[in-house]
Amino acid sequence: MKKNILSLMKPEVVAIKQQDIFKFNARAKAIPDVINMTIGEPSFTTPDHIKLAAIKAIEDNKTHYTVPEGDHELLNAVASYLHTKYDLNYDPESEIIATTGVTEGVFSAFNAILQPGDEVLIPSPSFTIYGPDANFNRATPVYIDTSKTGFKVTPDVLDEIMRTHPRIKIFLFNYPSNPTGVSYTHDELAGLADVLRKYDVFVLSDEIYSELTYNFKHEAFAKFLPEQTLLLNGLSKSHAMTGWRFGVVCGPAEIISQINKIHELATTSITSITQAAALEAYKNGLDDSIKMREEYCRRRDVLAAGLTKLGFECPDPDGAFYLFGKIPEGLEQDDVKLCFDVLEQEHLAILPGSYFGIGGEGHIRFSYASSMENIEGCIKKLGEYVATHIHTDETAI
User: Fold this and answer.
1) Which stretches are annotated as coiled coil (predicted)?
2) pLDDT per position as a tens digit, 15-43
3) How distant, in Å, are the alpha carbons of 46, 153, 185, 224, 252 from that of 192?
4) With 85 labelled, which of 183, 346, 366, 390 sits at a CA distance of 20 to 30 A?
């Protein structure tokens, strides 16, 4: 009789499902001529001076272990960068960890903080890792449907949920937002901080898109609530370094020291070569993101204008590189069915909004991290699809 070895596995792991966005992209990649507007992947390449710094590190045989929290010259450079950019003051010796991207930062922080029965408050629609990370730790995600409030959390709603959910241990805050592109002004952040100050709760503030903020200057949540906030940031989006897998977790020393224990168990340390590249980015790449941001703005405007003409309504994209369009009346309102239909008929890959959770239903996420050629091709193909599939009152008679 064959043994059921799977039954010995941790149930929380077995319960995790492959993310729908990965399955959808696998199907899209099987189509040779597909235009892919799904990926949050900069079309730019890592700046040359950063690549050269990594090559030099290899040539200089800097290929050995580093201390778990990260090379201290690097941590000093991170602290200086965050001070210059966002007026933050972190002690590089005790308040910063270099992680394998923000993904590992979230995972390590959740593992260090959460206990069975805790709750994690997540504005939704949201990036897809946060809920499963909570479930893995036998905590329960609690979602705020932001679709009725311009895809933003309001202080009144936040206060009501915090008051009625005393087991909330973490407020997971991501801005500029993936998938909606919305961000928060000074006054909006101050209002949320005033609410959270009343409660014993951590704020994990995922600000990986901070340097891709368009309509106003990005402000870090840690400026408003430093004693409760863990800042998550990195170089993937600002410096087109997704494959290098570099992130940071910053916060109060006594909390960072505990998270570092999990980080050590998971990784020992991130690669020495990635750290050499990150050091160069933080020391000499202060303005690397400017030209990228300007180009993203140009792409955003072209895509937004095209989608508007086709009847899609999108929240004002304050940052990141996504538009979150409401499906026009007259088209199939099931966003999953619509996206698969568009993929099969037009060879255009766009992501269903419902993949990003509550409040995403009836929407589609478009990434303008893609090339201008792809953006123009997307508008053309989507226009052809809309023209042949939309139903008006007149056509229904």
Assistant:
1) none
2) 988 889 999 999 999 999 999 999 889 99
3) 35, 8, 11, 9, 20
4) 366
